[in-house]
Design a protein that fits this description.
The chain is mostly beta strands and 282 residues long. It contains three helices and twelve strands; from the N terminus they run H-H-E-E-E-E-E-E-E-E-E-E-E-H-E. Strands 1, 2, 3, 4, 5, 6, 7, 8, 9, 10, 11 and 12 form a twelve-stranded antiparallel sheet that branches.
């Protein structure tokens, strides 16, 4: 029995001495390397985004004549004296449509189909004088307004100048437009001195359909500036754009075909459109 007790004591002593020795050993250390954090899904989302919105605004148009025409052919003077005078951006019209935009790292590729009304104005005048008595004259002044309705499909490339919530940008692009309606109104005023007394008069506006006067398509290039502001996942956009038409919109084969226009001596010049648009989008 004593031998068993001695063996048990010896075994416990050996076990305790080995445990203490293991505790005194130093742990092996390993170098710690810095690990770069993976980009978050939110960051990836902000790098590339689709935007879908609505935009509307006002625009003003002028027509640039390439070749001039008239319903009258004077024989004793040059016809330049009664040429049309085009108003420079003299009337307002409106537009509204959608904006579908893909944004990627500061660049945006934007398709903006819209319904657009454009209005340009020109004036001209004619004077008739009696050969025997120069005081007997008749002066007629014409103010002619043209309302053109287009379905327009422009494509723009934008570049954001900053990456903050308030982002100014520049944009360039091109457009194709399809004519869906046209209307022409004529306001006639004048002075009649042929009756012996000078008397001013003004007629009622003559309003006629004028779709046959213009061709169906209009193309051009465009450029502009703007600013956007992000609130949560909503972006407000304000921009100003200049459109430069590349083709004449007058229909040559129907230039003298509208009897109501021919009766007042009107014939459409070959004109290209210039347009300034201001839009607000969401």
């Amino acid at each position: 029995m004593n031998k068993c007790i001695l063996a048990l004591v010896a075994g416990l002593t050996l076990f305790c001495s080995q445990s203490m020795a293991q505790k005194k050993k130093k742990r092996k250390t390993y170098p710690v390397y810095a690990v770069q954090p993976r980009p978050s899904e939110n960051d990836r989302f902000l790098q590339t985004q689709w935007w879908l919105g609505f935009k509307a605004g006002a625009n003003t148009t002028t027509a640039s004549p390439e070749t001039r025409y008239s319903g009258f052919s004077p024989v004793n003077y040059e016809p330049t004296s009664n040429q049309k005078q085009y108003e420079d951006f003299g009337a307002l019209a409106g537009h509204a449509g959608l904006e579908i935009t893909l944004y990627h790292r500061g660049f945006s590729f934007s398709l903006q189909p819209n319904y657009r009304r454009q209005n340009f104005i020109y004036t001209n005048s004619y004077e008739w004088a009696e050969s025997e008595n120069a005081n007997n004259t008749l002066v007629l002044n014409y103010k002619q307004s043209h309302l053109l309705d287009y379905i327009e499909i422009p494509f723009f490339i934008k570049y954001d100048l900053t990456q903050t919530k308030l982002r100014p940008f520049v944009q360039v692009g091109a457009y194709y437009a399809r004519l869906v309606g046209a209307q022409k109104s004529v306001e006639i005023t004048g002075v009649d001195m042929a009756s012996g007394n000078s008397s001013d008069f003004e007629t009622q506006n003559l309003i006629i359909g004028a779709e046959d006067v213009f061709i169906k398509s209009s193309t051009g290039i465009a450029g502009g500036v703007g600013v956007s502001y992000d609130v949560w996942n909503v972006r407000f956009v304000f921009d100003a754009t200049y459109r430069y038409g590349l083709n004449t919109i007058a229909d040559a084969k129907n230039r003298y075909a509208t009897n109501q226009l021919a009766s007042i001596g009107d014939a459409m010049d070959d004109v290209e459109l210039r347009n300034i648009s201001i839009s607000l989008g969401c």
